[in-house]
Structures are given as C-alpha cells and as structure tokens.
Amino acid sequence: MSHFLRRLPLSRLLALCAAVLVVGCGATALAVAIGTGPVPPAKPLAQAVHDALAAGAGGQQIEGVSARIQLTDHLLEGANLASQAGAGGGAASNPLITGASGRLWISADGHIRVELQSESGDTQILYDGHTVTLYDAASNSLYRYTLPPRSAGGVASGEGSGSATGSSEGSGSTGSSAGSDGQTGKIPTVAEIQEAIEHIMRHANLSGATPTDVAGQAAYSVRISPSRNGGLVAGAELAWDAIHGVPLRLAVYSTQTAAPVLELAATEISYGPVPASTFQFTPPPNAKVTEVQPHGQHEGEAGSNGAGANTHPAHQSGLQAVQAAVPFTLDAPASLAGMPREEVHGAEVNGHAAALITYGQGLGGIAVLESQAKSGSGGSGGSGGEGGSGGEGGSELLGELPKVTLPGASASELPTPLGTLLSFSRDGIGYVLAGSVTPATLQDAAKGL
C-alpha cells in the first residue's frame, strides 16, 4: 500500500485521505443545528451518553438514515494548491478538498453512500462493510480498498454486517451502540461511563452534555479539547440525537480560526428504511480502477514469523538499537525547536528501514521520519533541486507543493490550520517532519537537523 501511495498523484492522494474522513464522519456526523426544533432536558453527560447507547435496545431502532449534507473543509486553504501546475493544482477543485453539498445514506446494516456534487463532476464514496470505494467523476478514476479481516476475537467487518438478520442490533450499525461491548452487546452502566469520562478528563478537557437543537431534533452536544500542549488543535464537537441516539454533527476546530476547519453537517435529515438499490453503483466501463492493497498483504508478512521478526527494524526502540538497524547515520539531536527528544523507534517505508523520532509531548510535539534518500533526490550538501523533497520516505508526494528554502535543501511544505508537513532530502537522508505546529516552528526544527 505504501508503494501505491508513493506513486499516487498529490491531488488523488489528498482526495483519498479526505474520503476516509468523509466516510468516518458520515457514520457519526449527520446534521447541523438550525434553531427550530425542541431542546431536551438537561442531563449529566454520563446519563446522556448511556441513554444514547441504549436507544436501540429501548425500541428506538433506526432502520436507516437519509440526509442532505454540507461538507466544510478549510484544511488545505493555505496550501496554495491552485497555483501549482499539474496534478497538484487539480486538487483545488476537488469537492473532497474544497467542500461541497451532497447527499448521504446509511442503512440499518451499516452500508454507507455519500455523494458530493461539483461542477466538474460528482464524487461518490461507498462502504459495504467490507470495501471502501471512491469514484471521482472529474478524472473518471475509481479507488477501491478492501479492509483486512479482523481478528477472531472481534466483530468481523464482513461477517453478518450485510445480512438482514444482522439488523437485530440495527441501531448500532448507524452508531448508536458504538460504545457497547463488542462481544456481548451489553450497554455500559452510567457508573462505567462516568468512570471512562473521568479517565478522559485526566488528559483532556470535556464539557458537559449541552442541550441543543440539531436539524429540528432534540440533541445533546459535547466538546473535547486538549488540556495541555494541544498544538494548533483547539478541540472537537459532537452532537447526537437525544431520542434515537444517532450522532448528528462532528466539527474540528483550530486555534487559528473561530469557525470549524472540518465539519460534516446535514441540512435535512430523516429516519427510515433505505432501498438496497441506493448502495449499488456501477462506474463507467472506461473508468480507471486502482485497487489499494493493505500494507503487508504482499510484503512484510514473511518477516513477521520466525527468529528474524525480533530483529526487524520496525521492532527496534532506542537510539542505539535503531541506529544499528538502519543503513544510514541517524540525525537525532537532543532537542529541536526547543523541544527535547522523547522517543526513537524503528520504522519501515516502502520495504526500507527507517527511523521515527519524536520531540516534545502532546499534539504540539514534532515527529521526524528519516529514511535513506533515493538516488538523485538531493546529494551531499546540495539543494536537491526538484528532488529535494524526494526520498524513500514517500516524501516525493509533496514535490508538487510550494517550496521553502532551508540550509542546503529546498523543502516542500504543506501548511494547514491543524498542523504542518515538511519534506526534504539532504546528505543522502530523506526527512519528513510533521506536527500540530506552525510552519515557522517546523522550519525551525528542520534547520536543527
């Protein structure tokens, strides 16, 4: 899979990442407040969550959801993609990247379909319990990813989820039993939920259940935010139907802006059976189909067994052990951008040994991925030219982004309201830096390498 992602044009990669976001949000965020419906009575958060999880078991089974939606996406507005030539510039008009209106359906057995509309052609996203399919009409391209089977101890992603008899836990398919025991379907007690809330509050700030009105439905809303060192992440909000227990709205906020950076909302919503034909989609016969392979399906599996498994680079931890496992000299100073080095772990990128080094703690920390640079992607002391953002670390995916100048290298940079990504090659090493920090902070860290 990593080899596929490394070769994928930037616009298609960004669209694929956004598709994952939309499918995830689609299952848990369906409607936005319009200020015309009833407001539920005040409840402690634990009680409100318990009632939401128990809604299906209490007879409020959801047979399906239909909604008109609005996807808001300001994540890449500062990336200046529109000014980039080639495939990168094409992302500027992709509805998954720019946001769009559309429709969403969820069936009782967990099938999902999302349509996002744009002048250049609709984008379709489908999930059937086994496979996620993304079709981009503008490029006539279809991407299909089949989820790996789950372990025997868990609920299999493909077993029973698509059958009519599997809907006896039906409301859970649309999210209402997400917090119940995956083995027995038992709903946690209020005391157990309160204990979990107290555990969360040791690491984050959590509001109470705020009574509100969401798309004409009585609802509760909760906000979670980092308690310390959250970087650029201000928090997230989730609202759910007070009666049906279905999550209704999800929004992610940045410290840089007051409005949500990401939000999936429905302008209209209704509950009821959704015809099976809604989830059937046939792409044009001349569509370009790409099968996205799960990591390790064709490579790496042999190394997971036997004595060699413990010596695999990805299993190493600590500066000395990781240095011994990689074929290049690690660049791991004691601190970067004023943050102390925390951990050093082995990694594998496209079948090659790599190292992941973290600095600072929390979301406001910085991660540095180092790998051996590809031949011609920036020589010793060179700027790297077009290859300055190359390397085995897959950083060439960022080569279409705007460049910034670093000592001895030209770097590709992806700034967003939630964090920054920076990639360059120098002295035979490919670097990818990421963190929920400003571009200036990440550039400062890069200069320390």
Helical fraction: 10-25%
Instruction: Write the H/E string, N to C.
Output: HHHEHHEEEEEHHEEEEEEEHEEEEEEEEH
Unreliably modeled segments: 1-11, 25-34, 82-89, 153-183, 298-309, 378-396
Number of strands: 21
Assembly level: single chain
Report how far the terminal alpha carbons are from each other: 29 Å
Describe the 3D structure.
The protein is of the alpha+beta class and 449 residues long. It has nine helices and 21 strands. The strands form two sheets. Strands 1, 2, 3, 4, 5, 6, 7, 8, 9, 10, 11, 12 and 13 form a 13-stranded mixed sheet that branches. Strands 14-15-16-17-21-20-19-18 form an eight-stranded antiparallel sheet, with helices on both faces. A hairpin with a 2-residue loop joins strand 20 (419-426) and strand 21. Helix 3 (45-54) crosses helix 7. The model is unreliable at 1-11, 25-34, 82-89, 153-183, 298-309 and 378-396 (pLDDT under 50).
Topology, element by element:
Elements: H1 2-7, H2 10-28, H3 45-54, E1 64-73, H4 87-90, H5 95-98, E2 100-107, E3 112-116, E4 123-127, E5 131-136, E6 141-146, H6 170-173, H7 190-200, E7 204-206, E8 210-214, E9 217-226, E10 233-241, E11 247-254, E12 262-271, E13 288-292, H8 319-325, E14 335-336, E15 339-349, E16 352-359, E17 366-372, E18 403-406, E19 409-416, E20 419-426, E21 429-435, H9 439-447
Parallel strand pairs: 6-13
Antiparallel strand pairs: 1-2, 1-12, 2-3, 3-4, 4-5, 5-6, 7-9, 8-9, 9-10, 10-11, 11-12, 14-15, 15-16, 16-17, 17-21, 18-19, 19-20, 20-21
